[in-house]
Structures are given as C-alpha cells and as structure tokens.
Amino acid sequence: MKNSASVSHIPFPVMGLKHQSCRNSSSFSPLSLRYSTVLISALFFTSFYLFISPLRHVPEPGFLKGEGKRFIGDLRDAKFSWNKLCFGPTFEKLKLAVFSKTWPIGAAPGGMERHASTLYHALAARGHEIHVFTAPSDRKPHNDVHQGNLHVHFAANDHGSVNLNNDGAFDYVHTESVSLPHWRAKMVPNVAVTWHGIWYEVMHSKLFGELFSNQNGVLPGSMTELQEAMPRLVDEIRFFSSYNQHICISNSAAEVLVKIYQLPQRNVHVILNGVDETKFVHDPEAGVRFPEKLGVPANVSLVMGVAGRLVRDKGHPLLYEAFSSITRDHPGVYLLVAGTGPWGRRNAELGQNVKVLGALEAHQLSEFYNALDAFVNPTLRPQGLDLTLIEAMHCGRTVLTPNYPSIVRTVVVNEELGYTFSPNVKSFVEALELVIRDGPKVLQRKGLACKEHALSMFTATKMASAYERFFLRMKNPIYCQYPFPVDC
Asked: Which ranges carry the Glycosyltransferase subfamily 4-like N-terminal domain (predicted)?
C-alpha cells in the first residue's frame, strides 16, 4: 500500500494506565515538601486563573460562527474544529490500526467506549479497513468481532499485548488517549492520538472536588493528590511529544496543548465528538410515552433528567444537595436519573419526586431525553466532551451544565442553548431556579436551538468525515488543501 507505515515486529500493550508516567513524583523530603507546597499553590492559582478566564459566552477569533465556510487553505492551519468544514466523498481507502482502552459491551459503558464504537463503525461503513485492539468493557472473555471492514481484537486481560505483525502494514496508527502508551508510540513512525482528557483539566477536576468536599476548609485531609498534581502535569507535558499528531475534542484543550504544553500549532487539531444522529432524534411522541410508562405523575410542572455513571466525580453529591433544596420550594419538579453507580440509591432517597431508572440502551436513552424539559449535567470533571450533553441536544433538549471552558467554548456557546453554573451548590441552585422560572415554553425553544446546533456540529457523520480527511492527508499531503475538488 502506498506510503503505508509498517508497524510489524512491535508488541503493543493494548492498555496503558491513564496518564501513566515512568517516574514516581510522590517522594518528597520534609523541606522540599514545604517548598513544593508553596510553589504548587502559586502555580495552581495562576493555572486556575488561566483556566477560568475564558468562561464568558463570547465567541473568540478563530471560532466565529460560519468561519469554516470561509476557510481556504492548508488544513494544518485551521484554528477551529474540523466539524465546521464540509468534506466530500473519497475513493481512496485506508487501513488503520486503532488502540482503545475498552470496547462497549451492553448498556453500561462510559463515553469513551461509546465514542470509539461510533467512530470506527462509521469509518468502516465508509469503506476503510479498521483493526481495533482493545478489551471488553465488562472484562469478561469475548470472541473477536469481524463485521465487514471492522475488526475488533480483544486482549486476554488489561496487561495483554498485541503483535501487529500478523496484520501487516497500516497506513496509520491511532490511539484513544494513552491506550497506546507513549514509550511505545515513539517507536511508531505514523501515530496520532485523540485526547479525551488532559492532565491540565484533570488537575482542575481534583481542585473542584476538593473545594466541594471541604467547603469550609476544616477537614484534616493530606491534600496529597493536589500536591502531586503539578509534577504529574510536568511529566505529561514532557511525554506528549512522543505522539506525532494530536486531536483534541474541545477548542479549549487544543489551546492548552499549544500555549501550555508547547506543541507545534500544526500538530494540534480539533475534531469534536459526534453521536449517531439516526439514534438520538427529536421525537415528541416518545417524549409523551416514556414518562407514562414510568408512572411519572401527569400534573408535574417540569421534568429534569441526568444520565451517566452515578459516581462522585460526575457531580452527584452536588446534584443531591441542590435538588434537595429545589424540591422543598418546588414540589412539582420531577427528576429522572438514568445510569448505574453508588449514588443511585442515595438519589432515590430524595423522595417521590425522583425516579432512578438504571442503565438504558441507546434507543431507551433517546426516549429518556425526549421525556425531559431540561437535561442536567452536574459533573465536577472539567475535561473532555460529555456525550450525554450532545445526545440530549440532538433530542431537542436544552441543557444545564457547569461553565467549564470545554463546554462553554464548544457546546453551550451562547445562552440560547442552555444554562451554566459554577460547580458549587449555591450557583447550581440559582441556575435550577432560572430553569424553573423560564418554564416549558422557553425550554422548548432553547431545546430546538440545541438540536440545530448539534446537527451542525456533533453528528457521527461529520466526526467520521473529519477523521477520514485527517488520516488521508497524513497518507497523502494533497489532502491538506481545503477545499479539495470533491468538497462541499
């Protein structure tokens, strides 16, 4: 195959520990600990200021509405998401090796697995030969999957390895985050990585978690994770150059990789996540049937919903406290909770205004979103791009979410699309009050605006088309030019 990258004779671990580093940064002497605490505190506040400074709902230069339609030139110079562009069909086919942490089995897997499944099914459907090296999300033995052009190879366990020599040469190797660890990636001539979360964002997740759990500063916690966060960030910045090309799933993450991680602008690209637009659709009839099946009272004034893993870092302690306050003042507000996790039982304790549904299949999720007046995402993790927000928007639902840069600069880009709040109870309650005050008619109008925005940016078709052009232009530089003769 022309210009194909041979990756034979190299054993690759299917999985790498998330943000794994070869060095241990947790050993401090008492003196260095005091010094590092002061230094890290200063760096934290500086980093935190940089993190929150772009939270205004103002489009920035380079991300203006319609900019993709005006772009002419080399795609490596595009400083906006490739989803804004319209790529035409191609007759050149690719053979890709892909590394993903896990592969979805059943209804419970998280967003990264569902993203991988959606993307590689779509690329295979476009005629490309895709070999995914992964592990099943349920950690049980499964036979390899061979569906047309899609080949999913399961490892025996988390520490299994795969020798790609059996499958010959590939045009390109792609890894979802550190599924292909950096010390292996540096040995591969053509490798690209999609980052679903970077340590700079994880660091702020830990900060928000600490601020929420220890609101008055009275707990005696050791703050070990916060003290070690900055050394971990330094380690990550050092190993990111092991990957040739970087794809970010939010505009803010791309800016961090260029300005803080100091990667070359031409090696950093933005391709936003997309979901199957044929499965997540606006369906008012389903929106009526679904709550009736669940026994939701017909006289409720407003139905809100939350979906995903019911765990602490997804913001369920924050949701619990805020919704406890809301139900006291607004007994007509109802909450549907889709997902599994330790906070399922705790959410059920909120009373008769809350119903916990467990894990839902994709078609059930679409009905679930359609049954809502507003979708709530209380996450304490300002990283990546939560698929539940995008799914709800496709179903014509406005969203209520924290004001993290990855969200307000990519998803909820203006107030017509939803509501945002700071990740604390007071701000969350104020946002919930505003949703209730606006009422169903305003929420419906905003939901339809969300649907239009999602269809223009967050579809599986646009995502797969952008990834296809990305790999084609790495194989043949002629595809760097936009528009190409076949492009829209």
From this structure: 109-277
